[in-house]
Amino acid sequence: MGASLLECLSNPANREDDRTAVEDLATGRRVTYGELRALSDRLRDRLAHLGVGRGDRIGFCLEKSVDSIASIFGIMKCGAAYVPTDATAPMSRSATIFEDCRVSALIVDSARSEKLAAELAKLGHEPPLLALEPTDEGLPLEQCLAALDADDPAPAAETVDCVADDLAYILYTSGSTGKPKGVILTHENGKSYVDWCTEVFEPTPEDRFSSHAPLHFDLSILDVYVPLQSGGTLVLISEALGKDPIRLAPLIAEHRLTCWYSTPSILGLLAQYGKLDQLDLSALRIINFAGEVFPVKHLRALHELLPEPRYFNLYGPTETNVCTFFEIPSEIPPDRTEPFPIGEVCSHCECIVIDENGERVAPGDEGELCVAGAPVTQGYWNLPERTAAAFYRDPDGRSWYRTGDLVIEDETGDYIFQGRRDRMIKKRGYRIELGEIEACLYQQPDIEEAAVVATTDEGNVQVTAFLTLVGDQKPGIIALKSFCSERIPAYMIPDRFVIRDRLPRTSTDKVDYQSLVTSLASA
Amino acid sequence: MGEVGAAIKAYILEEFLPGEDASELTDTTPLKSTGILDSIATLSVVSFLEERFKIQIEPHELDGDTFESVANIEQLVSSKL
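ok -> structure tokens follow
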């Protein structure tokens, strides 16, 4: 198999044009492989007509839809990389991202286009914007392209023959300084992972994969490409539906999904609220989860309701795609409380564990997991220093991505996750740099100092912001949450705010985060 | 604001706004768009309402603006009592 993600759509397995490629549960829209190829060709022609070519970046801020999948392929067909952003996050955040990587054009829902254009104008970046209007007939992207063609027809362009090192997509993750950072991923990074998934999960044209994760989230890479490469069907679950286990569960049964992939949080909610024992979920053969630790209590509850499918814990930061995996045993011992391992290294990459001095540690000792190989990013967009700091160079000169995750290798060769070496946390699968929340709070005029900590209670992550104030004006909690909601995504907004006269300090005069965590535990 | 609204307010204040001055949470304070209730918090409000008022809330009732304010939630609950 080759190294271009575009091959997923041109693979002989899906040569039959009339098979369903993508189905959208929320709108009932569906497209066949033939239609998806044709629509992405038309977008390619339009973008090429705008002058977009190899190496350019094209942003999109869309609700997950047939259009967003067609956009991914249309963008890559003209040699460009796609940059998806969170359509539910504040537009100022999307604008910051699109300005950072200097997108050459943008595809956006018309409801968001004005606000996004205004935010981008503030940053002095005004790329052409393709606004998709809602429509009852056909697809919004189709109609948008038809309207543009009516004025100024875009001539047919050639699909660019993307090679391994060509940039395919950029996924922005939380940045500790308050600005999201873009992980750059090439066709080889993505395709090597897709091929590994194909080997392990053995998808067939009969498979129906859930697309639960939003497209700016790295879990989407498996969802989008693995079923298409095999001629299967990609079933889109909108963001709103995806968070609503009560409505979601019957749809998994009704639409006969065969492969599920999401964070443990939503699986836990499905077990708790989905009334799964009343549903026929016999089509489901694989349940993959990733993004955070799955508390065994919740995993066991799900497993008891759904004992048939195979369960896999997939592990890997956005920078490496998935790099280790673990298949959950068919029996979960009733007394087990410790989370399952993140597992063994995937065949398409290599892992080592190092200590603080960069020395390899022996199995059984804790160290930082580092990853090398085909799926590993070349670094962050336009951040050479951050990129350099993210890699460890071994004595032979080989570069390894430092995950920041502390692990122990057990006697069977499985890695066991121990914790983080920095201030990044995972909440409902989202990566959050606590520093980014602090940077947001520092913009609030009443706040003098902010220190944000995360604690875990029965597997639920709680984020608490400790604040000191400039004056006597005490901002209300509603006001603080509201302030945050205009600047950072909802999953980053602290659950609790605690106002203090001063923050505790260490002997070197740094904020003593540990004592703040302890104060919560004893409260 | 009747008894139903007061109970909803008390629950939201205790669970999601610990430390907030009760007068700040009004009948019309936006709950979702301000980040006070996220999707998981909404589910726990649903569980609370179902248990406290012995009512059943249907999945489609979580749509739109139903949980956007205390007044809206109160209206939903009252319609079922």
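Chain B touches chain A at residues 16-21, 24-25, 29-30, 33-36, 38-40, 43, 59-60, 62 (CB under 8 Å).
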